[in-house]
Amino acid sequence: MKKNWKKVLVGTLCLVGFLLLLVKGNQFEKVSLISTEGQSYEKAVVTKITKDNLAEDGNRYGTQEVRVQVKSGAYAGEEFDAVNPSGSLFGMENCEVGSRVIVIVSSTDDNAVVTVYSKDRTMAIYLFVLFFCLVICIIGGKKGVKAIASLAFTGVCIVYLMFPLMYRGISPIGITIVVVILSTLLTLWLLGGVSKKTVSAVVGTVSGVVVAAVAAVVFGKAAGITGYNVSDIETLNYVAQNTHIKIGQLLFSGIIIAALGATMDVGMSIASTIQELHERSPQLGTKELFVSGIRVGRDMMGTMANTLIFAYVGGSLSTLVVNYAYNLSYNQLINSYVIGTEIMQGLSGTLGVVLTVPITAAVAAVLIGKKKIVKEPLMQDIYDGADDYEEPETDGEYGEDV
């Protein structure tokens, strides 16, 4: 009971401290980069198509004119005539009666101009997230619930801790490493509890992420690639001029976050494997446990390396296809900032994952290898010892032991 109360007390203090940090970190005013006065994004339903833009060839050109009933905000319940641009990135491709949309309401004095912004995807997103959580909880049981909790905690850390502190001028790389440590501690604690296995996995995961960050910075300096060579640098420069965000470090912070999941997976797997080996064969020494961890890790390196490389390729597939279509020369392609950045991200993240294996194996072999396994007596041992059992000598009327 005392141990439970101590755990509850420590957990409560940590939670209160974390919440106070979130509140303190978000107590600031953002600089207004664009004017949104009199403009709001509201939910609406299309009630009528007043002018369609469907051509005879079956394609849509220009804009579509519709009537919508606003469902939220100051104009809830009112109907307005709206314009639907029908673009690929702006507006809805084809509005129909009953379509749920998001509209931009621009109001001045008593007048309001309404434009269709996009399809209302809120319900689809909520249902998909709910389905995702249910599948993980059903298949993973309690572990699945803990995984969802750790994922939510990481999201809160990124949105309400990392972003605000970056906005206030804190080093993006430094605060990202702090968030990685917090996320790793909570996630692995929920999955493995307070144990030597968890400590080993935490040390290996954090070390792997730091290795990925260092490798990216070193490669970036050698190849002349910085955070100012990204495609949206003009927008970032405008943001940097009006805020304290150090945009040059954002690229490397992204590499750290991207490598976290894979390194955590490898770290926990290696630590769990070494603990299981030790419990099954307690006679194995530190060296044998380390070698076994390395052997298991070798099988994981290939798949995890592919995981990160494929993830980065998938994220930039459109750019790669465009480069292929333009038939760029090798020298032009390999020396472009886009390709150099993708190579830096993929290889540095993979390097962090690979080095997580020996680091976790070494720490786990040292810590877990020292754990003493108390072997419980088997029933056969009890039966064998029964033959040597002798009745104690007694004396006295009531047979008291001598």
From TrEMBL:
Family matches, as InterPro entries: YibE_F
Superkingdom: Bacteria
Keywords on record: Membrane, Transmembrane, Transmembrane helix
Transmembrane regions listed in the UniProt entry: 123-141, 148-167, 173-192, 199-219, 250-271, 305-326, 346-369
Record PANTHER family: MEMBRANE PROTEIN, MEMBRANE PROTEIN-RELATED
Protein name (record): YibE/F-like protein
Organism whose genome encodes this protein: Roseburia faecis
